[in-house]
Amino acid sequence: MKASKLFKLVGARLFYMYGNGQGQSTLFSQIKTAVENKDEIFNMSGGEQLRDYLPVGEIVKILVDFVLSHPNNGIINACSEKPISIQRLVEQWIENHCCKIKLNLGYYSYPNYEPMTFLGDGKKLNSFL
Fold it and tell me: How far apart are CA 55 and CA 85, in angstroms?
């Protein structure tokens, strides 16, 4: 007969995060590189896609609060539930970093493998926090 042990499962579906240390192919790394290279224009899609972005620091806080407060409640969506367009997100980043780079919207086509809207459902998370 095998011995069994009880365990508590806690997990999180992470949505769109941004912050320092991201891979070079991410949107924020690309805009940061363009600014550092003193590019005058940043080529991007039309920017109408809606996403559920959070700074990595907020994601960490959500995870720590959830795990410490509710260590046996399964899986949550770590998300904001606040849609923001990719265009507005990049504009905010440019404003916050006092950059003068111009956006060239529509340079890239929308990828056919990504939905135009991708958001998290935070009902379970909000019920605990």
Answer: 15
Q: How far is CA 86 from the centre of its chain?
A: 11
Among 129, 126, 121, 85, residue whose Cα is nearest residue 13: 121
Instruction: Give CA–CA dist 127/129, Å, rounded.
Output: 6
Q: Distance between CA 106 and CA 48 in Å, rounded?
A: 10
Query: Does residue 13 surpass a pLDDT of 80?
Result: yes
pLDDT digits (tens, 9 = 90+) for 74-103: 788 999 888 999 999 999 999 999 999 999
C-alpha to C-alpha distance for 69 and 72, rounded to whole angstroms: 9
Is the whole model's pTM more than 0.90, yes or no? no
